[in-house]
Amino acid sequence: MAQLLSVNVGRPRQIAVRRGRALISAIGKQPVPGRVRVAGVNLSGDDQADRRVHGGPDKAVYAYAGEDIAFWEAELGRPLAPGAYFGENLTTAGLDVSGAVIGERWRVGSVELEVCQPRIPCAKLGVTFADVAMVRRFAEASRPGAYLRIVREGELGAGDQLVVSERPDHGVTIALVADAVLLDDALRPRALAAPQLAADLAARLRRAA
After folding, report:
1. What are the structural domain ranges in the chain?
2. Checking DSSP bridges between strand 21-25 and strand 13-18, what pairing results, if any?
3. How many CB atoms lie within 10 A of CB 153?
4. pTM for this prediction
5. pLDDT, tens digit, for every residue of 74-132?
6. pLDDT band at 209 (very low <50, low <70, confident <90, very high)
7. Which of 116, 126, 121, 200 is nearest to 150 (CA)?
8. pLDDT exceeds cutoff 80 at 23
9. Residue 83 contacts by C-beta under 8 Å, 6 or more apart in sequence?
10. For the structural domain made of 3-171, what CATH number should be given?
11. Residue 73: CB partners within 8 Å, gap ≥ 6?
12. Which helix H or strand E contains 202, and what residues bound it?
């Protein structure tokens, strides 16, 4: 049975100084107890530092599998707290998040979410891990986690069961789309076969084709 291990939120804060300027990010999140409202383009208590590249309807909620965090703990040889390093809002168990199909719908608590695109790593991931190579390692691992749209607003909390209520038959997964963007141009036509793919990312793939 798939479920939520943790629900995590965070506000923008300074994480580094680059070329004399503060680097602001909300990548570092903290688990919160109880029921959390999911509405609009966010979880209650969560925010993004730069809405040009983060947040919005197609990046409203970010999910990462606890099993993938365990993979990175083994790779890096240290514990990684939920939300603190990958910046996920939902830490899951029992669900292959990176293997989720674009357009797949999840019911959790009173909320319904739709899988719409992978996380494409940026330099802030390297800053969080104090290792610039982590951006490339994350891409090569094909464990990007999933951004989700909010289909039905509501509340959720740690311990809630997570049910996959719909799954399109095109078979285009989160991991395949991430690989198409980051690792293998030949996968781009296949990635574009998912009509539910976030429009901005689909346009990026078409321009690069």
Report:
1. 3-171
2. antiparallel
3. 12
4. 0.93
5. 999 999 999 999 999 999 999 999 999 999 999 999 999 999 999 999 888 888 898 99
6. low
7. 116
8. no
9. 6, 8, 9, 10, 28, 29, 30, 31, 89, 91
10. 2.40.33.20
11. 79, 80
12. helix 199-208
Q: What percent of the chain has pLDDT over 70?
A: 90
Mean pLDDT over 42-70 rounds to 84
- Report how far Cα 137 is from the mean position of its chain's Cα atoms: 16
3-state class (DSSP) for residue 116: strand
Asked whether the CA dihedral 113, 199, 205, 53 is positive or negative, the reply is: negative
pLDDT of residue 18: 66
Say how far apart CA 94 and CA 80 lie, in whole Å. 18
Q: How far is CA 8 from the centre of its chain?
A: 12
Distance CA 121, CA 77 (A): 21
Most distant CA pair in the chain, distance: 49
Mean pLDDT of 18-24: 67
Single-letter amino acid code for the residue at 106: W
DSSP for 125-194, please give it: HHHHTT-TTHHHHHHHHT---EEEEEEE-EEE-TT-BEEEEE--TT--BHHHHHHHHHT-GGGHHHHTT-
pLDDT value, residue 109:
98
